[in-house]
Amino acid sequence: MSMTEIILVVCYILFAPLLGGLLDGIDRKISARMQRRVGPPLLQPFYDVVKLFSKQVIIVSRSQIFFLLSYFVLIVLTGAMFFAGTDILLCFFVMSTGATFLYFAGMVTSTPYSTMGANRELLQMLAYEPAVLLTCVGFYLAEGTFNVSEIATSKYSAILYLPGFFIAFVFILTIKMRKSPFDLSTSHHMHQELVKGLTTEMGARNLAIFQVTEWYENVFLLGVVGLYIVNASYYSLIAVVLVVLFTFFLEILIDNTSARVKWDTMLKLSWGVTIFTAGINLIILMIIK
Amino acid sequence: MMEMPIVPFLIIFPVIMACLMFVARAENVRRVLAFSGAVVIMAGSVVLAVQWFMNGSKLMTLYVETEVADHCILAAEILLMCVVTFLSFKYRKYWVCLLSIIPTCAMVWYELSGSKGLAPEDVMVRSDGIGLLSGVVGEYHIYIDRLSVLMCLIVGVIGGLIAIYAIGYMQGYHNHHKDVEDRSYYFMTILFLFLGAMFGFVLSESLLWIDFFWELTSVCSFLLIGYTREEEAIHNSFRALWMNLFGGCALAVGILYFALQYGTVSLHVLVAMGEAKEFGAATIAVALIAFAALTKAAQLPFSTWLIGAMVAPTPSSALLHSATMVKAGIYVLFRLSPAMHGTTTEAMIAFVGGFTFLATSLMAIAQSDGKTILAFSTISNLGLMVACAGVGHPETIWAGVFLMIFHAISKSLLFQDVGATENSLHSRDVEDMHGLIYILPRLGMFMFIGIAGMFLAPFGMLISKWSALRASVDERNIILVLFIVFGSATTSLYWTKWMGKLVSHTHLTEAKMNDVTKPTETLSLSVHAVLMVLLCMLFPLLSSIYVNPLIKEMFGKATGVLPDNILVVLVAIILLVFAVPIISFVYSRKMTFNRKGAYMNGVNTGDDRSFVDSFGERKTLWLSNHYYKDLVGSRKLMKPSQIFTVSVLIVMLVIIIGGAIV
């Protein structure tokens, strides 16, 4: 591991939650403006998490914390592995294992809303996993390696070869970031502030852990978006920042302009888009490379 | 030449055990005998591995002159045919016996009249490995290399453990199923016979012997499936029989055609000639034998026999799914894979395997019966192995071998565990396993380990999938890439669903169930669980000291499949996954907290099990997983997938055979 990579990993572990929280704040602000509201202060997500940590612990199931902590550790590990420049396929495998633990955290309570949310989380995994794996295949075909640091320092940006894969990935990013129309697992009820599917029975510290893990995960996912753009030249980093911010804005826009769909629509849409865009891109790439 | 008396011992001893089981009708005597017999078999397979290792782990070819054995096998082959004919007349499935009579007669004719032996100058394809130039071409009958030793270990250790498990299980089984006549002696007889047949199968070099042991495993599984003699059991057993005998016919035709053309019945000569790709008859034989392997490995369209096989008592399912039967199909495909590489057969096998992987994992989502899920998942996993073998790339074989090892242990563990759970819980439905880890902690734990071994990181399945994916990209096999990508998503779904049920809190924690698992069952389960965990931790080591050389042996070149940096990461994940639960356990013990009732969108009555709704009515809570039956149910998908694969197979076989003849 080179010096840069060590610095990147340390930065990720230390600053990803700050960045993720900040993005969350921006998200709320922009969403509010789109809905003609003033919206909360930019740092509101941090206030929320700090408050959650200081609250009295009230839980439904004692073992939930096992699973949430495992989820937390595995997602942080995913991001750390990614920024350390290791194998991207392995990163995603660890991410899915982390997501499985989140599912367990929902299931373990044996309560109706939480279980329902967990079931939907599982469906979401089914919907996004093919696109995620295909992303790795795409990188491998384009750059001849699964290694993140080699992909990042290649001569040309991967997106030149992988436009279809990029579209599929951004599509499932909506699922992964829990944005409408695909926010099935954490929203389920009309009083969304109170009942949030999978997280219904998470309170205080547990919910704070969940929130921070989401921030870590979002930063990792946007990192993957950046990986499509980055190349050996340092100027490409400017493009990375622009594309990542644009993608993020796009997700907010989609979130605010679409109504939640049913699970089967989500599954069909995401698999359809994956097969259509990434599949065609894959065929072309296999022929030319 | 080194003599290895352990080799004939491994084949003959289980047969003797089978006879003893048949004779010993006193239950206590039989139990002691079976236990010691199983231990001897396990020890025997380990002795074989050790002895072979001491000899420098080189290829070994044994038994050039085997006239007596040849005659015995000939007689046994005819006997087998008579048994099948008798039973198919007894149960009025007359046509099934034809599938046995025709190939057996053809084989007998060849053995009695055919010219054997091959002049070395006829075939000089490859100068390394199997001694084609040394003048003993195609005359030995037993062949030992890393692959066969590995298979022996799987058959011996897992098979032996299943036999031990069966001792206790059959007792519990007949306590619950009073309506079934207790023929445990018969069950144990077939069980041991099966193990003998498997040893013979994986150690044989002569294709004639392979054919015989092949038929023997088919008939053994048929007899095991029909154990209860209920109508469904008989129906399913005959389906298993005809499908496997049909595969056996393809095998016999392939062998005979090859033997008549080139005058040899050596498996390795066949593979070497297939690899050279200049010999039409070898190409045809490889395609037909690979086709036969598809039936044995229960790939689509032949999957239904394995699903029907669950009607039998659990040890037989465990045996069919993990250590024997289906693994025989995979073993043959691994052997043939160098010959398949780059041919139309490769495309056929890889396609059918990949398709089966995806289609049956979809069907598994819709199942709630524990054993059915296991059956579908076996077929699906075998599909991945078949696809790996079909591609025939060193990397995919590496992946396939690991898939096979992991699958053998975890499937055997899971089947035994579901069986034991059924005896205690009186149900094997996943829905009834809600909170199993709290109701039957030991069995729940074993089940958790088994499932985790099947698909969760850091367990080996994942690494295998990783390299299968990479190799199929390298081979530019687009369709296989898509099958693997979508198939692994669906595979995760049904396993995760099941695991979630196990860990869900039950509200009956105070009502721990009575665990009626017998000591022999617990012994077998514990050994499996320990093996599973050990394998997960040591598999990088296993890869470097055993599987990499195995690949080198097969392909004549080594591949560094597992890069070092991945290895480091893996070890880190393994440590983490084991450490996190312990840390959080300690952490949460010190935690002070208040409990609250579940949110139910109504007034929780206090026990989290029911609530009062807005009309003042009391409603009970029932939590269930989703199954999506109308979307991916096997009723909906099985027939179309079968029709599809049948047409693919017919078209491909016509292309291969036609191409080779013209």
What does this structure look like?
The complex is a heterodimer of chains A (289) and B (662). With 289 residues, chain A is mainly α. Chain A has helices spanning 3-34, 44-54, 64-83, 88-107, 112-143, 148-152, 163-176, 204-229, 236-257, 263-288; one strand at 58-59. Chain A is 72% helix and 1% strand. The longest helix of chain A is centred in the N-terminal third of the chain and has 32 residues, at 3-34. Chain B is mostly helical and 662 residues long. Chain B has two domains: 1-337, no CATH class; 341-561 and 616-662. Chain B contains 24 helices and six strands. Chain B has a three-stranded antiparallel beta sheet with strand order 4-5-6, with no helix packed on it. Chain B has a two-stranded antiparallel sheet with strand order 1-2. Chain B is globular and about 85 Å long. Chain B starts with 5 loop residues before the first helix and ends with a helix. Residues 118-138 of chain B have low confidence and may be disordered. The chains are: A mainly alpha (289), B mainly alpha (662). Chains A and B meet through strand 1, helix 3, helix 4, helix 5 and helix 10 of A and helix 19, helix 20, helix 22 and strand 3 of B.
Brief characterization of the structure:
The complex is a heterodimer of chains A (289) and B (662). Chain A is an all-alpha fold and 289 residues long. Chain A is built from ten helices and one strand; from the N terminus they run ααβαααααααα.
- Which residues of chain B form runs of ≥5 with pLDDT under 50? 118-138
- Output the number of helix runs of chain A: 10
Which stretches of chain A are poorly predicted, pLDDT < 50 over at least 5 residues? none
Helix content of chain B: over 70%
**How are the strands of the largest sheet of chain B arranged?**
4-5-6
Distance between the termini of chain A: 29 Å
- The number of domains of chain A is 1
- Strand-residue fraction of chain B? under 5%
Helix-strand category of chain B: mainly alpha
Shape of chain A: globular
How would you describe the oligomerization state of the chains in this entry?
A: heterodimer
Order of helices and strands of chain A: HHEHHHHHHHH
Work out the largest interface and the residue count of each chain. A-B, 64 and 64 residues
How much of the sequence lies in strands of chain A comes to under 5%
Radius of gyration of chain A: 19 Å
The biggest sheet of chain A amounts to: none
Principal-axis shape of chain B: globular
For the report, how would you describe the main beta sheet of chain B?
3 strands, antiparallel
Class based on secondary structure composition and strand pairing of chain A: mainly alpha
